[in-house]
Amino acid sequence: FDLSGCISIGTKRRGFRTRNLEPETLNPEPETLNPEPGTLNLKLRTLNPKPFTRMIRRPVSPHPLPREFYNRNTLEVARDLIGKTLVRHRDGQVLTGWIVETEAYIGEDDPACHAFHGLTARTRIMYGPPGFSYVYFTYGMYFMLNVVCEREGFPAAVLIRAVEPRAGLKKMMELRGSKHPNNLTSGPGKLCVAFDITTELNGIDLTTKTGVLRVCAGEDAPQVAWSGRIGIREGTDKPWRCYVPNNPFVSSGKIMLRKKKSPAG
Fold first, then answer.
1. Which end of the chain is more exposed for a tag (fewer CB within 10 A), N or C?
2. Would you call 68 exposed, middle or buried from its count of C-beta atoms within 10 A (0-12, 13-18, 19+)?
3. Counting Cβ atoms within 10 Å, is residue 186 exposed (0-12), middle (13-18) or buried (19+)?
4. pLDDT of the residue at 182
């Protein structure tokens, strides 16, 4: 399939740019053709997705993913994070969940990426080595968990949009103040509340075995799909959102954004 309409290529400030991806690096075996020019419609492992099938439950590996996992193309990382296990140690308890939805933000050419405006105190972590957490506060009410990807000096990260709870359900419900399991972690803000993830965990090395926050091996998703990113104003045309189709914990995309302030405001 043709990725030319999906991946921005060009030089921007200080020479950082979105990577030029060869199709075979994103998908070794093309599973589907683009339905329309300039779009990316990937359905991995199957051409005709069946209703969601829950992932196999195996014991959570205590070993975090190595730094090499993150030191790759961001879209590959976004896809391969699906089915991995998010692990949070909190007050002697362990909260875990299967990652079912991610979004990629790549380089200074990406208008939705925080690095679009260059290196700042806030985005410095994105320019650092891969395998670290990037947690920020947004809309005046939500924390968002991202993992830094690619080589040091190139700003890129994957947003963890949703997980399927696995362990610590009672504590997650307490933290969220919700009695509905399917609503606990079906969105990036919700999962950060359920896992008690705040900016205090910004810059955490996710590759250490004793870390309070890490990503460990999990299971391959039975199927994966791609779509445009949601919950943003710019860059919605880039099909860099990866998710498990029909999974009840995938976010709905119905996110209310505050109106932009006028230049005078």
1. C
2. exposed
3. buried
4. 83
Sign of CA dihedral 203, 206, 210, 213: positive
The answer to whether the beta carbons of residues 49 and 245 sit under 8 Å apart is: yes
Q: CA–CA separation, 55 vs 158, rounded Å?
A: 22
In whole angstroms, what is the distance from residue 191 CA to residue 161 CA? 8
Cβ-in-10-Å burial (0-12, 13-18, 19+) of 182 comes to exposed
Radius of gyration for the alpha carbons in the chain, expressed in angstroms and rounded: 18
Rounded Cα distance, 208 and 67, in Å: 9
CA distance 108 to 166: 36
Rounded CA-CA distance 67/207 in Å is 6
The rounded average pLDDT for each run of 10 residues, N- to C-terminus, in the chain (265 residues) is 34 38 35 33 37 51 91 97 96 95 95 90 94 92 96 97 96 93 92 97 96 92 90 90 95 53 34
Q: Residue 24 in 3-state DSSP?
A: helix
> Is the Cβ–Cβ distance between 213 and 197 less than 8 Å?
yes
Nearest to 19 by CA among 108, 131, 79: 108
Contact 40, 135 (CB under 8 A): no
Specify the pTM.
0.75
Q: How far apart are CA 25 and CA 146, in angstroms?
A: 22
Coil, strand or helix at 135: strand
Q: Which three-class secondary structure state does DSSP give residue 68?
A: helix
DSSP codes of every residue in 150-178? SSTTS-EEEEEEEEEEEE-HHHHHHHHT-
Contact (CB, 8 A) for 63 and 50: no
- How far apart (Å, rounded) are the C-alpha atoms in residues 74 and 78? 6
